[in-house]
Specification:
The protein is an alpha/beta fold. It is built from eleven helices and ten strands. It has a single domain, classed as 3-Layer(aba) Sandwich (Rossmann fold), CATH 3.40.50. α3 runs antiparallel to α4, α7 crosses α8 and α10 packs across α11.
């Protein structure tokens, strides 16, 4: 084979691989499903993609805040994750939730009615499987793989159509194993997640396989993530601990924080400035 033929073959292969994968960004769930057809497999993240808690406490951004705080305190990555998960899980067991985008349940039902496979893929721990299913049901969402049993290890399990991978595993690697184990061969894989790292991991795992995979970085919750208020959520966590699992709203926490600042200011001395003193002669 001539050098020209070899080069041509390499270019064709490179083009076919790159064409099989794509990363997009969208603020609307409907964009991800626009041209879905039977044979596709739709995979959806949960936190900040389908659902978010009714208050900042328990949010995905609060988990990130805890993780950063614990690492700064000296814990290594795994220990910090474990501690953050323990606190985050306590709130998930009792919090009510709301939809990130109100049209999502209807979009999922439309896909299911058209015989398109839809599953959830979450970094939540398996311990939260019943609370997670309850939250989704409260929002009008039910996944169809309810009777399928799948587990890889103690950290990974499929429960009512929700694939739990835990906070330490690669979503792409786990999904690939799940599809292979169940002998599912999608025409295309469509993945939606608010975290860029998960979107990139999915792309990195499936692109070499030649499977057409379209990975959406979903941005509908970005504004709330950016507006995260550490002082507010610290008040909510304080009340949650002191009152045995009571959740207060963001508005209530903000009023408490403001009242505390005002109360403190009443007892703080005036700032000292050199002009307040007479120079001795």
């Amino acid at each position: 084979m001539s050098f020209k033929s070899i080069l041509s073959t390499i270019l064709v292969f490179a083009f076919s691989v790159s064409a099989a994968a794509e990363i997009r960004e969208t603020n609307f769930m409907a964009d991800a499903f626009a041209d879905a057809t039977p044979g596709d497999v739709i995979v959806l993240d949960i936190d900040n993609t389908i659902l978010e808690p009714a208050q900042t406490l328990g949010s995905d951004q609060w988990f990130g805040y805890l993780l950063s705080k614990f690492k700064k305190s000296g814990l290594d990555e795994n220990a910090a994750i474990d501690k953050a998960i323990r606190e985050w899980t306590q709130v998930q067991e009792v919090t009510s939730v709301r939809l990130v985008e109100r049209t999502t349940p209807a979009l999922i039902r439309d896909l299911q009615e058209n015989k398109i496979m839809v599953i959830a893929l979450t970094a939540r721990p398996v311990d939260l499987k019943r609370a997670t299913a309850r939250q989704l049901h409260s929002a009008g969402i039910n996944f169809q793989d309810r009777n399928v049993v799948y587990t890889n290890n103690k950290d990974i399990e499929l429960f009512q159509g929700i694939l739990f991978v835990g906070p330490k595993n690669n979503k792409g690697t786990v999904l690939q194993h799940y599809l292979q184990t169940r002998k599912i061969h999608p025409k295309r894989l469509i993945f939606v997640d608010d975290k860029e790292k998960h979107v990139k991991n999915m792309d990195a795992v499936f692109t070499p396989t030649g499977l057409t995979n379209i990975n959406f970085r979903y941005s509908a919750a970005d504004a709330r993530v950016k507006a995260f208020n550490a002082a507010l959520v610290d008040v909510q966590w304080e009340y949650f601990q002191k009152l045995g699992g009571v959740l207060i709203t963001d508005e209530e926490a903000e009023r408490i924080a403001v009242d505390r600042r005002q109360h403190l200011s009443e007892f703080m001395p005036l700032p000292i400035h050199p002009s307040h003193f007479r120079t001795a002669h």
